[in-house]
UniProtKB/TrEMBL annotation:
NCBIfam families: GSH_gloB (TIGR03413). The keyword Nucleotide-binding does not apply. It comes from Meleagris gallopavo (Wild turkey). Belongs to the metallo-beta-lactamase superfamily. Glyoxalase II family. One of its GO terms (cellular component) is presynaptic cytosol. HAMAP family: Glyoxalase_2. It comes from the Eukaryota. This is PNKD metallo-beta-lactamase domain containing. The lineage of its organism: Eukaryota, Metazoa, Chordata, Craniata, Vertebrata. The keyword Hydrolase applies. InterPro entries: Clx_II_MBL, HAGH_C, Hydroxyacylglutathione_Hdrlase, Metallo-B-lactamas, RibonucZ/Hydroxyglut_hydro. GO terms for biological process: methylglyoxal catabolic process to D-lactate via S-lactoyl-glutathione; negative regulation of neurotransmitter secretion; neuromuscular process controlling posture; regulation of dopamine metabolic process; regulation of synaptic transmission, dopaminergic.
């Protein structure tokens, strides 16, 4: 059976859960795709709403509604993106939902491919057909529906496809659990799984070793790391997230960052409030503004770039400490202080609303 749209399916309004004239229950109504609550009241309700989204059928129904709305609003995707190629490798960003990215990673010699976080199975299938490749693997960074919601539909279309991800993150249709630093192959491509808990307890990033093809490492970061930002701490502590970010940065400055969302303008605008005299930040914000005015993707960046302007990777910087009004306590361990800095940056970002 081929992939089809939602047309012809029974409306969710029969359940009183969206679609038609129905509405979502109070706990989930009005929350945005990534549970981005911008007020103290919203933050207070966040744990309840998040639990509904991540752990119940309501979350899946909400996701389906968001997919339908995004297809209507962005029939050609929310951004204009360009494939990137090395000798024997092609990376195709697929803009899906209102700001997500899936990625089709292709071994061009064999025509075999993996997809990272197939949010919208129709968009992913269209890319597979356009490229004329065989889908061998789904690499799922975490369980949230806007990253895993297309797993089941793609497996129906590609029955021999494998689904990789963390065993502790309740990923839909998981067939091949992988652990930290475990490697997997798709054609001649080698990926390494990197355990990066914090956003969820089992969040996992995937690193493509592009060295044999003359390219730098490629980090598919899901909701761990964005351009100038990082994911919310739904299921982890600042200490946990700090360790995960440090692990990612350890991949090297030339590593290409392929994030799960197009959040560049909002994250850079927020970062600018913390560092008013950062030339690298000013330059990146100007560039991103120009890109987004033309609806162009801002992906990828490099980890080296991110270290110059991403506040979540600058918890060791004195200028950030001063901007936050934080001082390291007497006898306080360096990493404990950095985690405290990250906590404060995250708190402010959670309340930030771009104007």
């Amino acid at each position: 059976m081929g992939l089809t749209s939602d047309r012809g399916r029974a409306p969710c309004s029969r359940l009183g859960i969206g679609g038609g004239t129905g509405t979502f229950p109070e706990g989930i109504r009005g929350c945005e795709e990534k549970m981005c609550f911008k007020s103290p009241l919203g933050a207070l309700c966040a744990p309840h709403r998040y639990s509904l989204y991540a752990r119940t059928r309501l979350g899946f129904l909400f996701y389906k509604r968001q997919v339908k709305k995004a297809r209507e609003r962005f029939p050609h995707g929310h951004s204009v993106s360009q494939p990137m190629g090395f000798h024997g490798v092609k990376i195709v960003p697929i803009p899906v939902l209102s700001n997500n990215y899936s990625y089709l990673v292709i071994d061009t010699d064999s025509g075999r491919a993996a997809v990272v976080d197939p949010s919208d199975p129709l968009a992913v299938q269209a890319a597979i057909e356009e490229e004329g490749v065989v889908l061998e693997a789904i690499l799922c960074t975490h369980k949230h529906w806007d990253h895993s919601g297309g797993n089941a539909a793609l497996l129906q279309q590609h029955s021999s496809c494998k689904v990789y991800g963390s065993a502790v993150d309740a990923i839909p249709e998981l067939t091949h659990p992988v652990g930290d630093r475990e490697k997997l192959s798709v054609g001649c491509l080698t990926f390494e799984a990197l355990a990066t808990p914090g956003h969820t307890v089992g969040h996992m990033a995937f690193v493509l070793d592009a060295g044999p093809f003359g390219g730098p490492p490629c980090l598919f970061s899901g909701d761990l790391l964005f351009l100038a930002g990082c994911g919310r701490l739904f299921e982890g502590s600042p200490e946990t997230m700090l360790a995960s970010l440090d692990a990612a940065v350890g991949l090297g400055e030339d590593t290409l960052l392929w994030p799960g969302h197009e959040y560049a303008l909002e994250c850079l605008s927020f970062a600018r409030l913390l560092e008013l005299d950062n030339p690298a930040l000013e330059q990146k914000l100007l560039w991103a503004t120009q890109q987004r005015q033309e609806k162009r993707s801002t992906c990828p960046s490099t980890l080296g770039e991110e270290r110059t302007y991403n506040p979540f990777l600058r918890t060791h910087r004195r200028e950030l400490h001063e901007a936050l009004g934080l001082q390291r306590g007497s006898g306080e361990h360096h990493d404990a202080f950095r985690a405290r800095v990250l906590r404060e940056v995250r708190r402010r970002k959670d309340l930030y609303k771009a104007t």
